[in-house]
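Handout, section B. The chain below has 69 residues.
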Amino acid sequence: MTRGGKREGSGRKSSGGIARRVSLTLSPEQWEMIDKSEQSISSFVRHLICENELLKMKRKSRTKRDGEN
């Protein structure tokens, strides 16, 4: 029986992202908002980024539509 070392198929599966260590400076209220979300910090940030992208797309679509009138 072998001991230690990497075993094929073991460990946490990758989320497909690239891991980077960052430092965030937020107000106590902002940290509290993250804590209350019951999500990991990275999950919370990913969610905010996705929401922001959706808002941009909606604004862009609305601007195009308004410009056609």
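Note. The chain has a mean pLDDT of 87. Compare this with the example in section A.
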